[in-house]
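Give me the fold.
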Amino acid sequence: MDQVYSEGRLPWIRYVHQISGALISVFILLHLSNHLFALFGADMHIQVMQLFRKIYRFPPLEGLLLLAVLTQLLTGISLAFHKWKNQPIMVKLQVGSGLYLSLFLIYHIWSILMARFVWLVETDIHFANAGLQTRPSIYFFLPYYSLAVMATFLHIATIHYNKSRQTLLLKNSNPPDLLRIKKQAAGIILTGFVVTTLIMLGLCGYQIFTDI
């Protein structure tokens, strides 16, 4: 079996990165779930958004979330440079997907804050899908959103694979155990593809399900 890959020499940064990532994951779960409701129509999406906003736009929680994002960016970039060299492909995929998410978060949060506090525009589904309705903007926003969702699931899948593989190698587990981990990671990526497709259909205005 392969050798155990190096975790690097920045343990405290990893811990802070993991904690901030866990906080952001809660928001991402709500955010992606909200976008899936666009398949029931814009009104349903907005209703769910208003419900979720009572949680993540509560000022102390919103401030904590923004701090977590900043922490995630700074620690993630530090870890990326530290972990890139001489690592297996799955580790590099973890780093690459994390870097794309970092770039996405920087641009996305900046645009949301500008819309809220400078342009005074409501950042609902109509704001999100504005760039998906016309050419040539759709050629930027379609991959921009799609890759962000896919990168999220790829990041989760590679973290799961790398951590689980590390544990298996340290325990000298049998090859079937590693095959199980590979299947689980593939399942996460496949789920990401399905979720990405459904979200993009909803944002583009395709109402697959009728309103209940």
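Residues 138-171 form the longest helix (34 residues).
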